[in-house]
Amino acid sequence: ELGIGIVPYSPLGRGFFGGKAVVENVPADSFLHFLPRFKGENLDRNKSIYFRIGNLAKKYNCTSAQLALAWVLGQGDDVVPIPGTTKMKNLDDNIDSLRIKLTKEDLKEISDAVPIEEVAGNRDPEGFDKASWKFANTPPKDC
């Protein structure tokens, strides 16, 4: 609507779709311990989403992370994910997500596998929600 490109924040869910390690055990020294989605019962509930995406990834012969990035890329030509990557192997895997071409039906199937109402816990620590994009006020495009 405003002609602005979008760079989604943390397109791999802060590492959630990066691999089983986060789902199985959040590292003790990780910032993730401060995030409600990665705590106790919330993490337990969110694991089902991880496994759903993992099963869909098999259908597309890719990893969960690659499918997540392909889904983000499929949201529009003005959407460009920039996942934080600390290992060369992960960088190569992320680049390989460009080979995955999703149809509108594929995008819907993936979206349906992650109903927002099933995601347990807030994205940010308590108090950070007021700094969210949800409260941004952008002028109209014609200004």
From TrEMBL:
**Name of the protein in question:** NADP-dependent oxidoreductase domain-containing protein
> Which GO molecular function entries does the Swiss-Prot or TrEMBL record give?
oxidoreductase activity
Q: InterPro entries this protein is in?
A: Aldo-Keto_reductase, NAD(P)_OxRdtase_dom_sf, NADP_OxRdtase_dom
PANTHER family attached to this UniProt entry:
AFLATOXIN B1 ALDEHYDE REDUCTASE, ALDO-KETO REDUCTASE 1-RELATED
Give me the ranges of the annotated region Disordered: 121-143
- Regions of biased composition (Basic and acidic residues) lie at 121-132
Instruction: Give the keywords, sorted.
Output: NADP, Oxidoreductase
SUPFAM superfamilies in the cross-refs = NAD(P)-linked oxidoreductase
